[in-house]
Design a protein that fits this description.
Strand content: 15-25%
Bound molecules: ligand PBG
Oligomer: single chain
Order of helices and strands: HEEEHEHEHEHEHHEHEHHEH
Distance between the termini: 34 Å
Largest sheet: 8 strands, parallel, barrel
Strand order of the largest sheet: 1-4-5-6-7-8-9-10
Number of strands: 10
CATH superfamily: Aldolase class I
CATH architecture: Alpha-Beta Barrel
CATH topology: TIM Barrel
Number of domains: 1
Number of helices: 11
CATH class: Alpha Beta
Radius of gyration: 20 Å
Length: 329
């Protein structure tokens, strides 16, 4: 019997050699923590479908943002949960509304030790729960929504946000926001554009997180899970409109999209490991069916390996802790 021609196992023999040849890195500085802040909350409110995630009040948000900076995370993405909703999402452009206040608090707390990002979308603020304003027939009106996004971008920029994250999948949203920001002198405010956002069942727990009032679905503006080439068109258009970073969402079921977008554009690519993906791991681990901590690092490493430079994850703080204690086991 001959000897094997290649001994692949030599490079797997010890933690040190495995570390030496690892092709993919995972660092806290590549992670962004999505956070929710609830207007008027006296205490942080737990979200049942997202174990460990809360709707913050002002005080707990400040503390959590400071922790995120101390752990060396790359950034935080802030979502607001307002007390009042209406048809046009007026709360979204109120300079004293929940999200604007959260941006000011976060920036006051951490300065630029963290990239402070804000969700730029109307869905948390509208009583119908859609990401834009509706026309007379009840459809989301693309161009009227762009005007609301432009106003929202200015309110966030004035509150001091470093990057806005338009997530509503309206056509031309990046160009409209860039023009509004530049027109008001906010040339330094960045845009992390949700370029490829699919109409996904995996946003389920998030809807609880933001007290969503949506009836129906978002399939006339979010993408069909069947499509890949469409994401490349979306990503290229966003880059041409001035996006600083493009994002793919969800992540786990769309790793091919992450890779294809990474290869198609030359700006940084982010991927959003969404609430339902997180819940799958949490629920399975609760049953004792998988090793939770290993699963978390495996999921995040896989998203990085697929080509994401940046990962938005509810596990950012925990992953930073796991990476710090990592014994290369
Ligand atoms: C919309 C928005 C959604 C998420 C982030 N931004 C929900 C949606 O499009 O229905 C989902 C995030 C998650 O599931 O973790 N502003």
């Amino acid at each position: 019997m001959g000897f094997p021609e290649h001994r692949h196992r030599r490079l797997r023999a010890s933690p040190a050699v495995r570390g030496l040849v690892a092709e993919t890195t995972l660092r806290p500085g590549q992670l962004v923590l999505p956070m929710f802040v609830r207007g008027g909350a006296s205490e942080p409110v737990p979200i049942t479908s997202m174990p460990g995630v809360v709707q913050h009040n002002r005080e707990s948000l400040r503390k959590a943002v400071a922790d995120a900076a101390r752990l060396g995370l790359g950034g935080v993405m802030l979502f607001g949960v307002p007390k009042h909703k209406d048809a046009v999402g007026s709360g979204a452009t109120n300079p004293d509304g929940v999200l604007s206040v959260a941006i000011r608090d976060a920036v006051a707390e951490v300065g630029d030790a963290l990239v402070v990002m804000s969700d730029l979308c109307l869905d948390e603020f509208t009583d119908h729960g859609h990401c834009g304003v509706l026309d007379a027939s009840g459809l989301v009106d693309n161009d009227a929504t762009l005007e609301r996004y432009a106003e929202m971008a200015l309110v966030h920029a004035e509150a001091g946000v470093h990057q806005v994250g338009p997530s509503g999948m309206m056509d031309g949203q990046v160009a409209a926001i860039r023009a509004a920001l530049d027109g008001a002198g906010h040339t330094g405010t960045g845009i992390l554009a949700y370029a490829a956002k699919y109409a996904s069942a995996f946003y389920g727990p998030f809807r609880e997180a933001v007290d969503s009032s949506l009836v129906g679905d978002r399939r006339t503006y979010q993408q069909d899970p069947a499509n890949l080439r469409e994401s490349l068109r979306e990503a290229r258009a966003d880059v041409a409109e001035g996006a600083d970073i493009v994002l793919v969402k969800p992540a786990m079921g769309y790793l091919d999209v992450v890779r294809a977008v990474r290869d198609a554009v030359d700006v940084p690519v982010a991927a959003y490991n969404v609430s339902g993906e997180c819940a799958m791991v949490e629920a399975t681990a609760q049953r004792g069916w998988i090793d939770r901590e290993r699963a978390i690092l495996e999921v995040l490493t896989g998203i990085r390996r697929a080509g994401a430079d940046i990962v938005l994850t509810y596990w950012a703080v925990e992953a930073a802790g796991l990476l710090a204690n990592h014994t290369r086991a």
